[in-house]
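To: structure subgroup
Subject: Chain for Friday's discussion

All,

I'm putting the inputs and outputs inline so they're searchable in the archive.
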Amino acid sequence: DMKEEKKAEMAYKHALKVQPKFSQAISSLGSMYEEKEQIKAAISLYTDYIAKNKKDSVILERLVQLLFVQE
């Protein structure tokens, strides 16, 4: 349901404003973008996050996978 998706997206974005290093919110929001085939949005989200949280190997791996698929 689109309305529920939008609510979830807003909740993840709010969580990230409150706690920018909340990797579960990044992961969930990124997955949401990937499922909606908004790959550029997912890449941007992961890139911004990794720039500030270089040690998060899970998000880094997802970013690398998306970049590899884009090639």
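Points worth raising on Friday:
The mean pLDDT is 94.
Helices lie at 2-18, 23-35, 39-52, 57-70.

D.
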